[in-house]
Design a protein that fits this description.
By secondary structure, this protein is mainly alpha-helical. 59% of the residues lie in helices and 4% in strands. Strand 1 (125-127) and strand 2 form a beta hairpin. Helix 2 runs antiparallel to helix 3 (44-60).
C-alpha cells in the first residue's frame, strides 16, 4: 500500500484486501447483522449507527436485502423496552420504510429525553437567590 500514489488506488487496494466479495465475507457480515442485539440503556442513535454500518458493509459486498426485511431485522434486534413502540409503528401500515422507522425511533428517544429534563427541572424550587427544598418548612439546605 505504501506504493500507491493516489487515493483511488489506495482505496481499491484496501477494498481488495478487506472487502472481497467472497462467500465467507458475505456470511460473516450477515451473521453480524442477524446476531446484532441492542443492550438495554443503549442510545437508539448509537444502535442505529451500528445497524447502518453493517447494512453498508453488506451493500459494499453486493448483498441485497428487501426494505421490509431490513425493517424487520431492526425491529427484532431492539431491546424489549421498545416492544410497545414497535407494535405501534407496525399497526395499520401497508408499507414500512427503514428510513421512516429510524426517524420514528430517534424522535421517540428525543421525546423521552425532553420529558425527563422537564420533570427533573421541577424538583427544586428557587426563591430569592437561594434554593429551598420542597417540604422543608424552614427552607434550609440541609437534609
Amino acid at each position: 500500500m505504501m506504493n500507491e500514489e493516489i487515493t483511488a488506488g489506495l482505496w481499491y487496494r484496501l477494498e481488495s484486501l478487506y472487502m472481497t466479495r467472497s462467500l465467507s465475507n458475505k456470511l460473516f457480515i450477515k451473521k453480524q447483522l442477524y446476531n446484532l442485539r441492542m443492550k438495554e440503556g443503549t442510545s437508539i442513535l448509537q444502535y442505529v449507527n451500528a445497524f447502518n454500518r453493517i447494512l453498508s458493509d453488506l451493500l459494499t459486498l453486493e448483498v441485497k436485502l428487501e426494505e421490509e426485511d431490513k425493517t424487520l431485522l431492526l425491529f427484532s434486534s431492539l431491546s424489549s423496552s421498545y416492544d410497545h413502540l414497535v407494535t405501534t409503528i407496525m399497526y395499520g401500515k401497508e408499507i414500512l420504510k427503514l428510513e421512516d422507522v429510524r426517524q420514528m425511533l430517534q424522535n421517540n428517544e428525543l421525546t423521552k429525553k425532553t420529558d425527563s429534563t422537564e420533570k427533573a427541572s421541577g424538583l427544586v424550587v428557587k426563591g430569592q437567590g437561594e434554593d429551598k427544598r420542597v417540604g422543608d418548612p424552614k427552607g434550609s439546605k440541609g437534609f
